[in-house]
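Thread amino acids onto this structure.
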């Protein structure tokens, strides 16, 4: 599978040594997260909206209410920028300005295409649910015809994308470590907590393994 080709819009210019166009790396990052931020313009004003997504092959799918400003704008074919970030650690340096974070991030540039047809939209909705919690779709009510009509599903071909990754410790000069406070990395990890039953839920139904032992990526 060929890597992404850097373009004028996706080429990493600041700290280019941290940039990557490796398709497998980009897909791994996208598949671990499921919240992205989408930047777009409406009447000359910039907006950044968080939403969830799912990657299916070489496409991302987004969904939302047909009344959503984000969905309306993207459905019109307007260009947008989508970003995802995973925080891996807090880097403690010997100087205040030397502190940093370890992270893995992806930026996608593109235009969306409307997913038409009840069957295609239903398949995408299933992908959304299964992406967040694998095995969940079979245990819940599927979307109704009315819910599908009220939902816009968009497909984003993955054509322009880049990753940026930072790992390791602080990069301060050796002399700045003399007499400094503690230095190192505080690793960060996304972990689920114990499931909390909805008060209206059936107390006789125990939380299944995919809920009890939830982790990312799925």
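Threaded sequence (218 positions):
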């Amino acid at each position: 599978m060929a890597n992404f080709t850097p373009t004028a819009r996706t080429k990493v210019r600041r700290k280019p040594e941290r940039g990557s166009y490796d398709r497998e790396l980009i897909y791994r990052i996208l598949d671990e997260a499921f919240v992205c931020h989408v930047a777009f313009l409406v009447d000359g004003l910039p907006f950044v909206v968080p939403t969830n997504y799912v990657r299916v092959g070489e496409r991302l799918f987004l969904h939302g209410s047909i009344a959503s400003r984000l969905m309306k704008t993207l459905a019109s074919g307007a260009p947008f920028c989508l970003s995802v970030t995973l925080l891996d650690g807090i880097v403690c340096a010997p100087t205040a300005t030397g502190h940093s974070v370890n992270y893995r991030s992806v930026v996608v540039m593109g235009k969306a295409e409307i997913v038409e047809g009840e069957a295609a939209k239903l398949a995408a909705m299933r992908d959304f649910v299964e992406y967040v919690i694998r095995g969940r779709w079979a245990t819940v009510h599927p979307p109704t015809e009315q819910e599908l009509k009220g939902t816009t599903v968009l497909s984003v071909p993955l054509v322009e994308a880049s990753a940026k990754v930072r790992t390791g410790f602080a990069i301060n000069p050796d002399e700045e470590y003399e007499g400094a406070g503690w230095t190192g990395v505080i690793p960060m990890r996304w972990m689920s907590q114990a499931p909390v039953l909805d008060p209206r839920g059936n107390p006789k139904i125990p939380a299944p393994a995919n809920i009890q032992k939830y982790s990312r990526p799925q």
